[in-house]
Amino acid sequence: MIVTVASGKGGTGKTTITTNLALALQDFMSVQVLDCDVEEPNVHLFLNPKINNEKEVSIPVPLVDETKCNNCGKCGDFCAFNAIAVVGDKVITFPEMCHGCGGCTIVCPSGAITEKENRIGVVFSGNAGKLDVSYGKIDVGVPLAPPLIEAVKELNENDCLTLIDAPPGTSCPVVAAVKDSDFCLLVTEPTPFGLNDLKLAVGMVRELGIPFAVVINRSTLGDTRVERYCQEEGIPVLLKIPFDKKFAATYASGRCLIQDYPEWNEAFINLWKEIERRVQQHAGATSN
Amino acid sequence: MKVAITSQGKDFEAATDPRFGRCQYFMIVDSDSEDFEVLSNDNIGVGGGAGIATAQMLIKHGVEAVLTGNVGPNAIRVLQGAGISVYTTNAPTVWEALKQFQEGNLEPLSQATAKSHFGRGKGGNR
After folding, report:
1. Looking at CA atoms only, how far is residue A264 from chain B in angstroms?
2. Is residue A288 very low, low, confident or very high in pLDDT (cuts 50, 70, 90)?
3. Does the pLDDT at position B124 exceed 60?
4. Predicted ipTM?
5. Domains (range + CATH), chain A
6. Which residue of chain B comes nearest to A172, CA vs CA?
7. What is the pTM for the complete model shown?
8. Fewest 10 Å CB contacts: which of A148, A151, A160, B119?
9. Closest C-alpha among A16, A10, A12 to residue A259
10. Which of B52, B74, B82 sits opposite A88 (nearest CB)?
11. Quick check: B124 contacting A, CB < 8 Å?
12. Which positions 58-117 of B are in contact with A (Cβ < 8 Å)?
């Protein structure tokens, strides 16, 4: 089963929920954590996995043989991302803009375009006690996260619980992280920004057709509008974590909530039970 | 010689546009015949590669010089690849930019003046 932890707004507590859920469940089942926030992965800072595998990830970008090119410009016309341009009798490529679709090699009538690999980042894998932990780290300056996120998700194993820590927002990298999940937890906070971005995230998961619920972090701050919104929309709120300076101190020291405050263990186990129940419900509803 | 000036409006009194790839209009002036045309820039809202696409559009229009506020690294590669000279100007209006150019007061650029995504405004490169 794949459960993805996402949020519209950044800094609401995705990693807090992911890591604590993993730690709370590790004694009951095999759990794998995939940090798909490849632009700023941080799960490993809390779980401290011993890394035993590093894999470079590349995407194919065009390599032009100018002796074969007839300067027809079809490659440039085809490319939706302006990653290749025919200028007079020269072809200029912009590997950093390329999404690796291979379209230019197909439309080239003279067979002048082949592909070469362009590195975009690295996937690290290892173990933290019983937990399998992997994370992607995109190279500095690379704007294209989805192929690296997909490479992290390829490590997904079928016979365990896979927890995915998604990037914030609702753009392509988030969709890449959330799609194909069995359930999505949206973490938010009771502030105007939290509410605004939650609405965007709800729109995204509804579009993807993935069952979801909300976790409200720092729930004693701000106002009640997030809760009212969830009520009006019929969105279950599965967990609320109050604001507490002690919790912030735990986070800032690189530790997890349930390590310092084991009384929170049960809340995360109950969170899992609710998720499991809803996934089964959804499976039942869609098979009828 | 066809000169393209990035503009926020459709006439010579209009303010120059400091952006290249995502400028609103180009005033394209033929310095020999003194004809001009207004070119609306369809690349203002593209997701990425606006500078590259806009540079290609100017190449197709036979432009030989560009006057603008800033130009990014990708756009200048395409423009220079086509032998187009790029000049930066802080002239307030299209007319004054053109005058600076005609009086020989502008130096052609050899490299970009702005980083990628300059013209995308606030919000950075997300």
Report:
1. 36
2. low
3. no
4. 0.76
5. 2-57+135-287 (3.40.50.300), 66-111 (3.30.70.20)
6. B126
7. 0.83
8. A160
9. A16
10. B82
11. no
12. 59, 74, 77-78, 81-83
